[in-house]
Specification:
- GO terms for molecular function: ATP binding; S-methyl-5-thioribose kinase activity.
- Residues 225-272 form the Aminoglycoside phosphotransferase domain.
- Its EC number is 2.7.1.100.
- Helix 4 packs parallel to helix 10 (285-317) and helix 9 runs antiparallel to helix 13 (367-386).
- The longest helix has 33 residues, at 285-317.
- A five-stranded antiparallel β-sheet has the order 1-2-3-5-4, with helices on both faces.
- The protein has helices at residues 15-25, 80-94, 123-128, 136-148, 158-167, 171-180, 199-207, 210-225, 261-281, 285-317, 328-353, 359-362, 367-386, 394-404, and strands spanning 35-39, 46-53, 58-64, 102-106, 111-114, 121-122, 229-231, 240-243, 246-249, 256-258.
- The chain is 50% helix and 11% strand.
- It contains 14 helices and ten strands.
- Strand 4 (102-106) and strand 5 (111-114) form a beta hairpin.
Length: 408
């Protein structure tokens, strides 16, 4: 085997290269262990490998390439790997136990190694199998409150917070969000991908609605200018590993300082996709009722538990004198809920008709069922955006989703 230089110049690694890299650049396995490697990534951006040793130990190695895997139109800085490794360490301190442990980061090869979560399941896949996780809402709200409030000006020294804003400027990944979430789904972009049965509906209700476009323009510029919290930036059910008693959040490469409601809204939208899938595909009445009730309660609890935990954490940790003024906490939290509704709406629409879809919808085999689910997502999404000031509790959020479903 020819020697490979990992210290001088970046290149995209193969499975064989990764084995060499782990042996020569990391101190994780014993020197006499036999190693095997398999690429396991199925995401839109990176290369993810699992390396196993003959002892049973294993590690995940993640490498960032110079272009997005979903499309070479997106030139993305490999610095996102540095951002991801650093934010995972921050999140690991703020929300201990809710993210994988990071072992090392390599700025030359733009890769990082971390804890292997093979005993967990990607949440989106588990929900497609109609598995339920009663502790999820409690876990994810603890994670969000701890990472969002504790990195804000409400709690942090303002100069320290501004230094973090500088460290986590993430222009390439932010541009993807600005384009794919807030811009392209709302006009007939060539990168959109509309299910044919919905073409007329989309042209009239989404692309033809000038009031909706105006609201999305407001949301786009708020996203770009509101450096509120150090957000995950892509907190969907494909970025969550889960099992019955534990939840791990992964893939924070879109992290930057943005509106806190962006993370909460992504969680709500992606639970909604699971709900819509179950509503149209499950035929056994009792199983359907049980699964939909779980998702309904999870959506309600994500909002209500987030609110109650946020208020408690504010009382314990708010350090800015003006944050104690009567009524300010309520104002601040309601603005997060407003942004939550808006982002949930944008995510529902963009994942339905934009470039990057979700399996919750695309895996629906019957055309009529898929059209019904997608139309409900678009309807709920539009309602969330247009009426985003109106929702203050979980029940109000879920009513938008329930009302959007076409009743028999």
């Amino acid at each position: 085997m020819a020697a490979v230089d990992f210290k001088s110049e970046y290149f995209t690694m193969s499975e064989e290269d990764v084995v060499r890299y782990v042996k020569t650049e990391m101190d994780f396995f014993d020197s006499n262990e036999q190693l095997s490697c398999k690429e396991i990534g199925d995401g839109n951006l990176n290369y993810v490998f699992r390396v196993k040793g003959s002892s049973g130990k294993s590690v995940i190695l993640k490498q960032a390439g110079p272009v997005a895997r979903i499309s070479n139109e997106f030139k993305v800085s490999p610095d996102r790997n540095r951002i991801e490794s650093e934010i995972l360490r921050i999140q690991g301190k703020l929300a201990e136990g809710f993210v994988p442990e990071v072992y090392h980061y390599d700025p030359v090869m733009n890769c990082m190694s971390m804890e292997d979560l093979s005993d967990y399941t990607i949440m989106r896949d588990a929900l497609l199998k109609k598995e339920t996780f009663p502790q999820f809402a409690d876990h994810i709200t603890t994670f969000m409150v701890n990472t969002l409030l504790m990195t804000s000006d409400v709690v942090m020294n303002h100069k320290d917070k501004k230094a973090l804003v500088k460290d986590f400027i993430n222009p390439d990944l932010c541009e993807i969000t600005e384009d794919l979430v807030f811009t392209e789904p709302f006009f007939p972009s060539l990168r959109n991908d509309v299910f044919p049965a919905l073409q007329h509906f989309v042209e009239k209700e989404i692309w033809g609605d000038e009031k909706l476009k105006l609201e999305t323009a407001k949301l786009k510029f708020e996203f770009m200018t509101n450096a509120q919290s150090l957000i995950h930036g892509d907190l969907h059910t494909g970025s969550i590993f889960i099992k019955k008693d534990a939840t791990k959040v992964i893939d924070p490469e879109f992290a930057f300082y943005g509106p806190a409601g962006y993370d909460v809204g992504n969680v709500i939208a992606n639970l909604t996709f699971a709900y819509m899938n179950g509503a149209v595909t499950m035929k056994d009445q009792q199983s359907r009722e049980d699964f939909l009730h779980f998702i309904e309660q999870a959506i309600i609890d994500v909002i209500d538990l987030f609110k109650s935990k946020f208020e408690k954490a504010w009382q314990q940790h708010a350090s800015d004198q003006t944050a104690a003024y009567e009524g300010y906490m309520e104002y601040y939290l309601q603005n997060i809920l407003r942004d939550t509704a808006a982002v949930a709406g944008c995510e529902l629409i963009r994942r339905t008709i934009g470039l990057a879809h979700v399996k919750d919808l695309t895996s629906i085999s019957e055309e009529e069922d898929r059209a019904a689910a997608e139309k409900a997502c678009l309807t709920a999404g539009k309602t969330f955006i247009m009426n985003r000031e109106s929702y203050s509790d979980g029940t109000a959020f879920f009513k938008v989703i329930s009302d959007a479903i076409i009743k028999d």
